[in-house]
Amino acid sequence: IRIDGELRDALNAGGRGLQLWGQPIVDLATQHVVGVELLLRWRHPSGTLLGPGDFLDVAEDSDLVVGLGEWALDESCRMAADWLSRCGSSTPEVHVNVSGRQMQSGGLHRSVTEALERHGIPPGLMVLELTETQAPTLEGAVRADLDRLQQLGVRFAIDDVGTGYSSLARLTELPVDLLKVDVNFVAGIGNDPACEAVIRGILAIGAALDMAVVAEGVETPEQATWLLDKHCRLAQGFHLGRPLPEAELLAALTGAP
Ligand code: G
Ligand code: G
Ligand code: NA
What we know:
alpha/beta; EAL domain-containing protein; eight-stranded mixed β-barrel; 257 residues; binds sodium ion; binds guanosine-5'-monophosphate
């Protein structure tokens, strides 16, 4: 399949076939949904529903990832405007994934502010998730983009913490507010002391640097209990909620049947 051509067609048609599914981020102490991570899906012209792993690399290798990122920012804000109108002050934070190439394109500040303004979303509601392994060298312009967004109230999360090659240096370089513990460490809770030690270490770094920590990939109540016991209050995973398409997500957020 010529994924790149088809993806270009989809973007040129205003994002035809592209969707964002939302996965809840839960406060384990209160069970409240405090955030939603938006995850890209693509209903390919063949009918198959594709995940990011099926087409993100292709997009990342071209300028397509920038258009895809702009589409995702706008779509996230459109969805968030709907949540805001129904959930008011309990509207969850909106977590949007940003690729390294999108950061380096130089247009991140503009894309984010335009999407927020177009849909009337307060900047404090938005969290941009950056992946360690993709985080580019922070040349002046990229750094300035991130700083301006942070001054506006937008926050930043580092995804898959512990799997990148320069994680600790990154944490002091980037304007980071939130650390996301990689699923592989969470999978080791209860059976792999090394994984547990890494999670404790990330929690200690978060506490020392005043960054919140989200555990990803929580699949069992035992993992949730272990995390809460270590004062890790924020978690995401199949045990707490699977990624859902827009209508089902909305029903989950508003408690509708
Ligand atoms: O939903 P799934 O677990 O298949 O997502 C796999 C990965 O794809 C996620 O870890 C996330 O980092 C990445 N991803 C999902 N949605 C987006 C998106 O909108 N933009 C970018 N750049 N990456 C995304
Ligand atoms: O870090 P990233 O943005 O890739 O994280 C989101 C990804 O993790 C999504 O692709 C989602 O499908 C996946 N995911 C979400 N919850 C769980 C879980 O409980 N277990 C596993 N193995 N993967 C999960
Ligand atoms: Na993410």
